[in-house]
C-alpha cells in the first residue's frame, strides 16, 4: 500500500465538472494498492495517517495530528503510484492491484479512516478520470509505504534505507579518515 499524503488548507476532487469530494484544512491522500495488501496494512496506514504529527502548534512546530486539529481527509485512488518507469518510456503498472481486488480494499481503507478521523472523510470515485485541486499547506508532502511480506514494498524500503546509509556514511568524514569517498 502506498500513500502520498499532502497537508492542505483545502482540496477538492471533480468528476465531469461536478465536485464529488471537498475538504478544508486536513489531508489529501493519493492511495494505491498492490497484491497482498490486507487488513493489517490498511489498519496500520489509517492509524498512521490520523496520528502523524504534521500540523503546526502555537510555536509553528509540527506537533499536532489530524485528530488534534479536527481536520478532514480527501481520499483519491491512484493506481499510478505503483508505476515502474525504470525501463523504457512507458510505465508498467503490473504491481498495481487490479480493480476487482483494489476496489474493496479502497472501500475498507475509507471505512477505517471514517472510524478514526475527527472530521469529514471525502472521496473521489474509484477508476474515474478526476481533477484534483488543492492548496498545499507548507508545503508538507510525505510518501508512506506499507507492504505485506513479498509485496515488494518491504524489500524496496530495505534497499532505499541501505542507499541512505551509504550516502550518510560517505558524507561523514569520521568514517573514512577525513578523505572523500568517490
Q: Describe it for me?
A:
The protein has 182 residues and is α/β, with parallel strands linked by helices. The protein has two domains: 2-147, D-tyrosyl-trna(Tyr) Deacylase, Chain: A (3-Layer(bba) Sandwich), CATH 3.50.80.10; 152-182. The chain is 30% helix and 31% strand. It has helices spanning 39-51, 66-69, 99-116, 153-171; strands at residues 2-15, 18-23, 26-32, 55-56, 62-64, 72-77, 121-123, 131-145. The strands form two sheets. Strands 1, 2, 3, 6, 7 and 8 form a six-stranded mixed β-sheet that branches. Strands 4-5 form a two-stranded antiparallel ribbon. Helix 1 crosses helix 3 (99-116). The longest helix is centred in the C-terminal third of the chain and has 19 residues, at 153-171. The two termini are 36 Å apart. The mean pLDDT is 88.
User: What portion of residues is helical?
Assistant: 25-40%
Output the number of helix runs. Answer: 4
Instruction: Tell the overall outline.
Output: globular
Question: What class, by secondary structure content?
Answer: alpha/beta
Rg for CA atoms: 18 Å
Number of strands: 8
Q: Name the CATH architecture of the largest domain.
A: 3-Layer(bba) Sandwich
Residue share in β-strands? 25-35%
Low-confidence stretches: none
**End-to-end Cα distance:** 36 Å
CATH superfamily descriptor of the largest domain: D-tyrosyl-tRNA(Tyr) deacylase
User: Which topology of the largest domain does CATH recognise?
Assistant: D-tyrosyl-trna(Tyr) Deacylase, Chain: A
- How would you characterize the largest beta sheet? 6 strands, mixed
Output the CATH class name of the largest domain.
Alpha Beta
Q: Can you give the mean pLDDT? A: 88
Task: Count up the domains.
Answer: 2
Secondary-structure element string: EEEHEEHEHEEH
Amino acid at each position: 500500500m502506498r500513500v502520498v499524503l499532502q497537508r492542505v488548507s483545502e482540496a477538492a476532487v471533480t468528476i465531469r465538472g461536478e465536485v464529488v469530494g471537498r475538504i478544508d484544512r486536513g489531508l489529501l491522500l493519493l492511495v494505491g494498492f498492490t497484491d497482498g495488501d490486507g487488513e493489517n496494512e490498511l489498519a496500520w496506514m489509517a492509524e498512521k495517517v490520523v496520528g502523524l504529527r504534521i500540523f503546526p502548534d502555537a510555536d509553528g512546530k509540527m506537533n499536532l495530528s489530524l485528530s488534534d486539529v479536527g481536520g478532514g481527509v480527501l481520499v483519491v485512488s491512484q493506481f499510478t503510484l505503483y508505476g515502474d518507469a525504470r525501463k523504457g518510456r512507458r510505465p508498467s503498472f503490473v504491481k498495481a492491484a487490479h480493480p476487482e481486488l483494489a476496489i474493496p480494499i479502497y472501500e475498507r481503507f475509507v471505512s477505517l479512516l471514517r472510524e478514526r478521523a475527527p472530521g469529514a472523510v471525502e472521496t473521489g470515485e474509484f477508476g474515474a478520470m478526476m481533477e484534483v485541486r488543492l492548496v498545499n499547506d507548507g508545503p508538507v508532502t510525505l510518501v508512506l509505504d506499507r507492504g505485506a511480506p513479498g509485496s515488494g514494498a518491504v524489500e524496496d524500503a530495505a534497499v532505499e534505507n541501505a542507499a541512505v546509509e551509504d550516502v550518510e556514511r560517505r558524507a561523514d568524514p569520521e568514517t573514512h579518515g577525513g578523505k572523500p569517498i568517490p
